[in-house]
Amino acid sequence: MGDIIRLDGNRIEVSADSKEGMLVPGIIYVDPELERHLEAQAIDQVANVATLPGIVGVSMAMPDIHTGYGFPIGGVAAFDINDGVISPGGVGYDIN
Amino acid sequence: MKDLVGVLYNSVPSGVGTKGALALSLDDERELLKKGARWAVERGFGTADDLDKTESGGCIEGADPAAVSGKALERGKNQQGTLGSGNHFLEIQYVSEIFDEAAANAFGLFKGQITVMIHTGSRGLGHQVCTDYLSTMEKAAKKYGIKLYDKELAAAPFNSPEAQQYFSAMKGAANYAWANRQVIMHQTMEAFSRALGASPRELGLRLVYDVAHNIAKVEHHTVGGTKRALVVHRKGATRAFAKGHAELPESYRHIGQPVLIPGDMGRASYVLTGTQKAMAETFGSTCHGAGRLMSRHKAIKAAKGRAIWRELEDQGVTVMTAGRTTLAEEMPEAYKDVSNVVEIVHSAGISKKVAMLKPLGVVKG
Fold first, then answer.
1. Which SUPFAM superfamilies match (chain B) (predicted)?
2. For burial by CB atoms within 10 Å, which of A54, B46, B202, B238 has the most?
3. B-contacting residues of A 55-84, CB under 8 Å?
């Protein structure tokens, strides 16, 4: 997995050059204590979401992040309505 | 508490089965998918005021039942008004701490008050919609030349027919979930009423808020000074709109949107409120719960030889469950401490703590 930079007490950044194809960086809201429980696969999923066309801002995850189907659970991502995508993995099986 | 949990357990169908669900004809079900919680209110489950206190009024316009497969409809027709299994629950709690008096006042919360939290969704119907469209979207990704770094990211351009079809099916599933909680809330109020011999109104039972946490929506957000229409995906994340937003009920508009954060069944849950910082940083989103620490399998192993229900009983929490392994899978130590999770979003400023709720009785699927 690529470069993780701590931005402040509550956030880390998954830099945009840490994985091929990332269009934007990832940001995970997590403190140093919960960071110890971060799954490598979940961080990788935050980076993967950042490769999807039309992503706006950053690929985000909340502190209750864990590995999900495609997108991490705890993930937030926004895509442009004209040149972005929609992905069932970004919603999951338990809809609503 | 034991009696009350027993009455709730018998009034709200839970577990993997479908016993006790509303019997829906296919026509009923199609109408429900289009109308969401409004469908339930029209049939006497709750009141119009509940819709005012529900995200998007409990209905996303544009749901298309024709986009929902026969298999999904089949799974959904016997599960409306049921809790289901897994992490879904109905919990009796009390307000143990108030962090923000003004917000708590506006939401009608006070210290020592009894609350009920309901966590469930679109059941088998939503699960089937996801399954159906994952394969559609995988093919669509290939067709439109989207390079997938992980097959599970299957996606299609939002304006493509495949994407629009998924979106209108997903809306139907989201509406099914809103109707489901509306029906269960009504059943819960009636059960309280029977058990305590007073009307829901006399008991002061009313909806604080109903919010989704697995959904994609078209929303307008300001990005770099420009207002843009975006498809916001929240997967295990909760909408947390700031005060002043037109989507908030009038009585909360000067405070912000209530955000419900269920924790594990032993420790606590929270009510938060949305902030301007969330609007600026996270498209108006925050966390959704404690987050698992152990896989279900690992939790079952860790619970071997223990009586989880008794451990909870000793902490003052009465639990009733339908599933054999549910309590092991869902035991408190299988989750992160929700207080740690909430502390981060609070201190990052993307939502603010309003109240802490402690569990007293739990119905688990």
1. Hypothetical protein PH1602
2. B238
3. 56-57, 60, 62-66, 68-84
